[in-house]
Amino acid sequence: MTIKHRRYKLLSDFERVYKFLKDNYNSDHFNGYLLPSFYEYAHTHSYFDHKLTHRFGLWEENSDIVGVACYEMRLGECIMAVKAGYEDLYPEMLTYGEKELSEEKDGSHTLTVYSTDKQGLDDLLTERGYEVCDTETITIYPYEKGFKELPLPEGFSMISLEDENDLKQIHACLWKGFNHGPNPDDDIDGRLLMQSAPRFNKELTTVIKAHNGDYACFAGMWEDTQNQYAYLEPLATVPEYRRMGLATIALMEGMKKSQKYGAKYCFGGQREFYGIIGFENVGKRIMWKKTWG
């Protein structure tokens, strides 16, 4: 069959690409770290550029998706994922990414390509003039290790968003927890947007409340029941409540809840915190960058 290429159509293709990523998930190279759960989460993030998703590229055979090239949040980024056996598409997809997904400024184009150390793109990217600009560790927590049981500090309580869903408190917690400053802006609609994803699950989201009612720690959790993993996003603790074990408690609770949905491990971050509480390194995410006139 002939492979055809076309642009992404946000309203009609979102679920099709999600299913493609889920059906072709590979625990060795993680779809170039384009996890279906992250793909969904990104589409509801206030930083995600919905206006330019028509720049995404799809490759189809007999109307079935066999490859996708897209950005993570905005132009200047490129992630490529293909169905097993269609790796020969990568050169064409990279050419497309350079044309449609690069960022143009002052007459120069820049593109950062995200891959994993097991995806097999090193030779292609090197030949095309890309250089490694950064690496990140890919970490998971295998549930067979069990879960750490830590007591909540006195005066604190743990809830899910099914119990209470105070958008203003959520916004304040994440704003301060990601070090944006002490005074949150008023983008409450951005928090509503993040709860609009088809598979957003209030039960899986864990919040720790302080004695004064403030949301002190927030741990979001997404699950892929087909591939039996959970994806943590986001995790944040308000600065004044750090170093009290709250993030560990909230994360362990979220993982325990995701286990009920069939998850066997959870993706984490790369900060030292994750290694300390038992996450294991399973690979590397590599950022390749190229600038041309």
UniProtKB/TrEMBL annotation:
GO terms for molecular function: acyltransferase activity, transferring groups other than amino-acyl groups. PROSITE patterns: GNAT. It comes from the Bacteria. Pfam families: Acetyltransf_1. Residues 157-293 form the N-acetyltransferase domain. CDD domains: NAT_SF (cd04301). This is N-acetyltransferase domain-containing protein. It comes from Clostridium sulfidigenes.
